[in-house]
Amino acid sequence: MFEYIGHLVRSSGCILRQNLSADVTPENVQKNWLKIIDMTSAKHLNSIQEATGELLGVVETMRSGISSNEVDYVVKNNYNFRDTILYALGVGATTQDPTDIRYLYENSDEFAVLPTFYVLYGPMGCMNSSIVQDAIPFTQINPTRILHGEQYLEVYKQLPTEATVETRFKIQDVLDKGKGAVVLIQHDTYNVANEEKLSSGQMSIFVIGAGGFKGKRTSTHTISTVDPPARNPDVTVTQKTNIDQAALYRLSGDLNPLHLDPNVAMMAGFERPILQGLCSLGFSTRHVLQTYAAGDPYLFKSIKVRFAKPVLPGQTLRTDMWRNNANRIYFQTSLVETDVSVITEFSANTI
Q1: pLDDT tens digits for 102-127?
Q2: Catalytic residue among 85, 146, 274, 329
Q3: How many CB atoms lie within 10 A of CB 278?
Q4: How far apart are CA 47 and CA 42, in angstroms?
Q5: Is 254 among the catalytic positions?
Q6: What residue segments make up the domains of the chain, in order of their start?
Q7: Secondary-structure breakdown of the chain: helix, strand, coil percentages, each rounded to the nearest 5
Q8: Name one GO cellular component term (predicted).
Q9: Is 125 a catalytic residue?
């Protein structure tokens, strides 16, 4: 592509891979080089956004040609009671609360996995692969400009207390939000031992500065969030996070330096490292289960949240809850110190 006097000129080019999971090899580039540089049918474009829109169209075509059973990335993980206990501690579980003992003591008769343990595999897979970059191939993504916007998790089976699991990732859509792009990523986790599907999740990743390519703004794949009822909450639970909460939570696999390195946090626009959004989600989930399920994780069905504002380690979380019917709990999490909502428009479904 060439630019002159404010205009862009691009060759018709050549598609070097037939699907998003295929690799582009030097041999493939060499084989198609004459097509790549052929300017006899060059296109004149008015803006980089127009060029970007065409590239996304090609990506969408490749994605639509993939079977719904095919995936873009696969990540395998092993875990045991040490991992699930560490996660529970990372999201505020305490021996001072009797309903938390089942998450903290492997010899407990009710020893169990906190259901939101399985959201870990979403960001772990994204950080250890190029899936987000591959979804927006026209932009070099700066990791400090990536935000976790929304999260969905549904659990299908009683989660084993130790297992080898395989998480399969699929790029569902890329949306143009003007100031940024939203990448919808589905992540389904299976028990390798018997191929049972244990959970399904969806991450909404907001990439700052990657929008403006005249792409679609909505998607049929989006799992909607809901506003809480217009009345005072039925129940409120508060819990103070630890000043080292983010350092503890990251040991469960979320190694994003944004949550520990002051310099990275400053580059991302924060005064100091912030708490992981999924850590706050774990606190809220515990509060809902304590309040409406006597702490029983097997009554958990699904959850959908939107992360609205950052939390600093050491601040106090307040979970406001509403029950509208037998199986759906609405909740909203705010900071006690500032009364600012940090998790909004979300609900939890119980069995």
Answers
A1: 999 999 999 999 999 999 999 999 98
A2: 274
A3: 23
A4: 15
A5: yes
A6: 9-64, 73-350
A7: 30, 30, 40
A8: peroxisome
A9: no
Tokens 């590239």 appear where? 55
For 119-171, give the DSSP string: GGHHHHHHHTSSHHHHHSTTS---GGGEEEEEEEEEE-SPPPSSEEEEEEEEE
CA dihedral 306, 136, 208, 228 (to 10 degrees): -10
* Whether the predicted pLDDT of 20 surpasses 60: no
Give residue 227's identity as a one-letter amino acid code: D
Say which CATH architecture domain 9-64 belongs to: Orthogonal Bundle (1.10)
Which entry of 148, 187, 259, 287 is annotated as an active-site residue?
A: 259
Query: Any idea which fold 73-350 has?
Result: Thiol Ester Dehydrase; Chain A (3.10.129)
Q: Tell me the pLDDT tens digit for each residue of 22-71.
A: 667 776 767 666 666 666 655 555 555 555 555 555 555 555 554 455 78
Q: Is 66 a catalytic residue?
A: no
Active-site choice (83, 188, 254, 320) = 254
Instruction: Tell me which DSSP letter residue 327 carries.
Output: S
Question: Which among 37, 49, 43 is positioned nearest to 13, based on CA atoms?
Answer: 37
Which pLDDT band holds residue 137 (cuts at 50, 70, 90)? confident
Which of 90, 201, 277, 282 does the annotation list as catalytic?
Answer: 277
